[in-house]
Design a protein that fits this description.
The complex is a heterodimer of chains A (233) and B (208). Chain A contains 6 helices and 7 strands. Chain A has a single domain, classed as NADH:ubiquinone oxidoreductase Nqo5 subunit (Beta Polymerase, domain 2, 2-Layer Sandwich). In chain A, strand 3 and strand 4 form a beta hairpin. Chain A is of the alpha/beta class. Chain B is α/β, with parallel strands linked by helices. A 4-stranded parallel sheet of chain B has the order 1-2-3-4. In chain B, helix 1 packs antiparallel against helix 5 and helix 2 packs across helix 5. Classes of the chains: A alpha/beta (233), B alpha/beta (208). Chains A and B meet through helix 4 of A and helix 3 and helix 6 of B.
Chain lengths: 233, 208
């Protein structure tokens, strides 16, 4: 996967990259698009649904089926080199009919480019997109957070569970528009559920990857892991 | 010849000429005096109040003047839990565990609006006041309180410690509220009473 990369030292620049300038007088619309967006549309003719430039930043709306191939190409192609995944998040619009959008912010350190990629997920259908964990390992916690707050499932994620709320959290996905600000349960119910969590039982088998060192663990932790207790994180 | 003034029995005298090798005082006074002037705080800082707490502990405001120079980051050796900042529900079992780990005698200070009442965070994630989890001795208002405010709260706690009496059977009794007591308010009533407050008055509890 990484053989075709040449190591880019800090401060070095790739030949065809733009010089580091602070853009000035950027129009709201109509600024030159990121060349990667054009190349992406040429490479995946059916996959790119829409592309727009707002305040000099390019947003590409793509098809959910081909997003993983696109990400892989953007990451690995020598003319793109998006090495850095800034963020994975989602947007739910106030209009209930509007689809939920999953947003990836990726950055090419070599070419000094920034690209925003969106996938629209229709309401009513299962909220599922492919995980980009196989490309950027940093997507692990970002996707877990996105799942925790929006309930979007990332297929192919190695350990998709809640990260901010505890694992037995029963009230739903807090950043969805149909979620009341104070939560669904009463304050006393919320508090009693929160207090019933065990603050020390926070490790899971997958998290520790301790299969080799299992016998060296304290007996209570071994017992807990053996029971497969779903522990609050 | 003449009257000899009786030695002051309620005060510990520091003056060298008045020391005769012994003092008499009330045991309560002596114990409380020692406790009030050597409170070791356990800082539980979660937000911006913790920054003010650090300023209080640093040289300008100098918490050490009040016998608190030794911040105890182990609850086993702490006397005062200073909760500085908002407590999310995920931290609720942890702060309760820390409180249970502290040995008696122990006190707690709720520093700032969020720790005292949830503050502006009237939402799904934040505990609406740590007094729903642990007993609180002194509430320090402010968002965040200035170091002077925290020092005032600490002085109030010292006054409270000085006023304790060992003969008081009810002091430092850890108890679960008795539902048959007249003072007991059931949780749904607490919810109902607290409903009109906060910044989300028109918010419904249940989803549409």
């Amino acid at each position: 996967m990484t053989e075709q990369f040449e190591i880019v030292r800090t401060g070095s620049r790739v030949e065809e990259s733009a010089p580091p300038i602070t853009p000035r007088n950027v129009p709201r619309r109509g600024a030159p698009a990121n060349p990667s967006a054009i190349a992406l549309a040429e490479r995946f003719p059916g996959g790119v649904l829409n592309s727009e430039v707002v305040w000099g930043e390019t947003t590409v709306l793509v098809d959910a089926a081909s997003v993983l191939d696109m990400m892989k190409w953007l990451h690995e192609d020598p003319s793109q080199r998006y090495e850095y995944l800034s963020d994975v998040t989602a947007v739910e619009h106030r209009d209930y009919e509007a689809p939920i959008e999953v947003v990836w912010h990726i950055r090419s350190l070599s070419f000094r480019r920034f690209l925003r990629i969106k996938v629209a997920l229709e309401k009513g259908a299962p909220l599922e997109v492919p995980s980009v964990w196989s490309i950027w390992k940093g997507a692990d916690w970002l996707e877990r957070e996105c799942y925790d707050m929006f309930g979007i499932r990332f297929n192919g994620h190695p350990d998709l569970r809640r990260i901010l709320m505890w694992e037995q959290y029963k009230e739903g996905f807090p950043l969805r528009k149909d979620f009341p600000l104070r939560g669904r349960f009463s304050r006393s119910e919320q508090l009693s559920q929160a207090l019933s969590q065990n603050p020390e039982a926070k490790y899971s088998m997958e998290e520790l990857t301790i299969a080799d060192a299992f016998e060296d663990l304290p007996s209570d932790m071994r017992q807990r892991l053996r029971d497969g207790a779903k522990t609050g994180e | 010849m003449g009257l000899v003034s009786r030695p002051e029995t309620t005060m510990v005298s520091y003056e060298p000429q008045s020391q005769e090798g012994w003092v008499t005082t009330r045991l309560d006074f002596l114990v409380n005096w020692g406790r009030a002037n050597s409170l070791w705080p356990m800082p539980f800082g979660t937000a911006c109040c913790a920054i003010e707490f650090m300023a209080t502990a640093a040289s300008r405001f100098d918490l050490a003047r009040f016998g608190m120079e030794r911040l105890s980051f182990s609850p086993r050796q702490a006397d005062v839990l200073i909760c500085a900042g908002r407590v999310p529900f995920k931290l609720a079992p942890i702060i309760r565990r820390i409180w249970q780990q502290m040995p008696q005698p122990k006190w707690s200070i709720s520093m700032g609006a969020c720790a005292s009442s949830g503050g502006m965070f009237d939402n799904y994630a934040v505990v609406q006041g740590i007094d729903t989890i642990i007993p609180v001795d002194v509430y320090v208002p402010g968002c965040p309180p200035r170091p002077e405010g925290l020092l005032y709260g600490i002085r109030m706690l010292q006054q409270k410690v000085m006023a304790e009496r060992s003969a008081d059977k009810h002091i430092r009794r850890e108890m679960i509220p008795d539902p048959s007591s007249q003072l007991y308010i059931p949780p749904p009533v607490i919810d109902e009473l607290s409903e009109p407050f906060g910044n989300s008055v028109h918010q419904t509890r249940s989803a549409p």
